[in-house]
Amino acid sequence: MAACVYCKTDTQLYNGGVPICLECSEESPRSWVEAALFRDLAQATKRAELATANFSAVARDIPYVLPHPDGVQLIRNASGELSAARDEVMKAHNRLNDFLNTGIVPEDLKRSG
């Protein structure tokens, strides 16, 4: 059983992949958007942490002398992955900040109907 993202009570209810109890889900339609944005931020942060660990491992494995061309490509790949992950974190932060500060709901989270 998961804990509600707001009140931390046990719940089996999920809204947009986010655990939320019935009481909190009924408070306002805004709560599920906020929960989804927090979930997206947490996932992006986790990806960035994994990319950082991967980059560190690749950099640690490359010798201090000029690396083999395969080593250079490994560094480029790890660096690109880390850069993309950091961009995702910034995007998630910006979406959450826009919502919390101005109430702007991202297009992909707007309910139809």
Notes on the structure:
- The protein has 3 helices and 4 strands, in the order ββββααα.
- The strands form 2 sheets. A two-stranded antiparallel sheet has the order 1-2. A two-stranded antiparallel ribbon has the order 3-4.
- Helix 2 packs antiparallel against helix 3.
- It is elongated and about 60 Å long.
- It starts with a strand and ends in an 11-residue tail after the last helix.
- The model has no long low-confidence stretch (mean pLDDT 84).
Q: How would the blueprint of this fold be written?
A:
Elements lengths: L1 E2 L6 E2 L2 E2 L2 E2 L2 H4 L4 H32 L7 H34 L11
Antiparallel strand pairs: 1-2, 3-4
Helix pairs in contact: 2-3
Task: Name some characteristics of this structure.
two-stranded antiparallel ribbon, two-stranded antiparallel sheet, 113 residues, elongated, 3 helices, mainly alpha
Q: Percent helix among the residues?
A: 55-70%
Shape: elongated
| Arithmetic mean pLDDT | 84
Give the spatial strand order of the biggest sheet: 1-2
Number of strands: 4
Helix/sheet category: mainly alpha
Per DSSP, the total helix count is 3
Low-confidence residue ranges: none
Q: How many domains, as an integer?
A: 1
What's the Cα radius of gyration? 19 Å
The biggest beta sheet reads: 2 strands, antiparallel
State the end-to-end CA separation.
31 Å
Helix and strand element order: EEEEHHH
Strand content: 5-15%
